[in-house]
Amino acid sequence: MSVKIEASEGGMDHNTMLGIGLIGALVCIYLVYLNTLMSTEVFAFFGGIAAIIALWWGTDSIKNLCSYGLGTGVPSAGMIALGSGVVAMLFATKLAGINPLLVPVGCVVVAAILGAILGFISDKVLNMNIPVMTRMIAELTVVGSLTMLGFTAMVAGTFSFGDLITSTTSVLGVELASYASSVIGGCVLATIFMLGAIAIQHPFNACLGPNESWDRTQMCAIECGALSMIGVAVMSLAFLSLPAVVISFVISIILWGWSYSELIKLSKRDAFAWLDSQPIREVGGEQ
Amino acid sequence: MSALGGGSAGGEGINPAASLVALVIVLASVGIAYALYPAALIPLIGVIIGGMLISFGVHFVPVGGAPAAMGQAPGIATGVAMLAAGGGLAGLFGGAWAAEMGLWVALGAGAVGGGLLMAITCLMVNVVYVYSMGIPAASGKVDKDPITGDTYDGYRSQGTEGHGLPFISYVGGVIGGTLAGLGGTLIYLELLAVYEEALPTVLGMTPEGMSTLAVSLAGIFAVGMFLVAAVLTAYNITGTIEGPHDPKFKRWPRAVIGSSAACAACGLVAILLVVI
């Protein structure tokens, strides 16, 4: 069994973060459903906020998992999270055929089952023997699927499979249904996949080290999520009306600007003590 | 090379009870798929075989990680997940491009694509090692190359585990890329067959529009499953491996068992998409 190394002291309890992340992301994804209820598209940006909340929670899960020596670096955890998350998320969108409100909850349930299987395999079958592994891989799969679902809802303004595979294009004034230019048919999902994967891999990978601090890592997660949200807002131009895209874009720019300036402040706070650092002197060395 | 400097985990040997549970997961997934959608039985078995090929193939790839970047360990200087994703996805794209030309041509294209990417990567890695870093190729695990018979003893620097990319590692990298590309393409083709057959009836749409949809669904699922199998294998290797001559290579059975269970579960969910 490997030894746990405390990454950073203080900060919020992980179970509290799990609660906030899970409920916050679910509520925000459900708010996207207002689009369908009120026949509008302006609530699409809630999908991006759901993804940021999920990423905020997932960064702490990655930190918990990687406190034990994985041997392969931090990004691999993000890859498995999104790789299994996209499978669960696409399956869940199909549940909209039964009831659209089932999608976000179904996404969490399917992802948790898949993640528990993957966690069990890595912990027991591969003999990793890390106490938190099953739980953290399951959490990361849920985070991956919620991130995908959030960004997909943001780009399409909806999260039901039927709407994700069709889009209407107007040719010479005639409305035509097209599969190729839809969210799934155009494989916008692949871009969302990488935007989500980068956002979940990067924060802890960038901030880890001897003076890692909880608030800086979490702020970096929000910053990465907001940066991906800007990309998703630009992509939604192909699927949503202009006012909805402008709202999404402005909100993501504001979120990113705020989180980036906060991150720089926190980085300066953590870095100030090192400004005056001297070269390490070796006592009894060969000078 | 753990991120935080902790000792890497991963004991030797196979855990019999857990492996049995993994096999039960495989059988249960196949059973559920057969009960709910009998036509998907063969494709699901194909997906599982694809996952096993990826997992076995990744063990051949010489992964050096951060120590290799500093010339202190042999192999390509990045992590397992990144290398496997590079080699396997190149294969997957190659195979997907040839998907219309029949199963065997597509599988061959996928294998050649993955192997070619690894061959080019290994060649350029050695060019950088030899001509820019000025280090010779020397294995840390064996004194004599199993293929060429070159001796490494006199070239290995003190305090390192070897450096550069020895011939046996190069061969391992190409074999690994080939197998991983083959596995990724197999997953893609099997899922594509399921979706092309089932989507028109399930969604009631015209076959013209359907092909793009089937391609992108199968593609994104194949990428997801590929990454799952590759990362599980990376966890099995725990860090660095030199190639087929490395003692860690003997760990492959448990990664193959684990990846088959993981791909069975993910493949089942992907196939159930057309059932509900």
Characteristic key phrases:
heterodimer; A: 287 residues; mainly alpha; two-stranded antiparallel sheet; 2 strands; 66% helix; B: mainly alpha
Topology of chain B as a string of helices (H) and strands (E): HHHHHHHH
How does the helix and strand content of chain B classify structurally?
Answer: mainly alpha
Rough outline of chain A: globular
Shape of chain B: elongated
SS elements, strand count of chain B = 0
H/E element sequence of chain A = HHHHHHHEEHHH
Poorly predicted tracts of residues of chain B: 1-9
Helix content of chain A: 55-70%
pLDDT averaged residue by residue of chain A: 86
**Domain module tally of chain B:** 1
The unreliable regions of chain A are none
Number of domains of chain A: 1
Strand content of chain A: under 5%
Summarize the helices and strands and which ones pair or pack.
The complex is a heterodimer of chains A (287) and B (276).
Chain A: H1 14-32, H2 34-37, H3 45-66, H4 75-94, H5 102-125, H6 133-156, H7 161-164, E1 167-171, E2 174-178, H8 188-207, H9 214-235, H10 242-271
Antiparallel strand pairs in A: 1-2
Chain B: H1 16-36, H2 41-58, H3 65-69, H4 80-97, H5 103-133, H6 167-203, H7 207-237, H8 252-272
Helix pairs in contact in B: 1-2, 1-8, 2-6, 2-7, 2-8, 4-5, 4-6, 4-7, 5-6, 6-7, 7-8
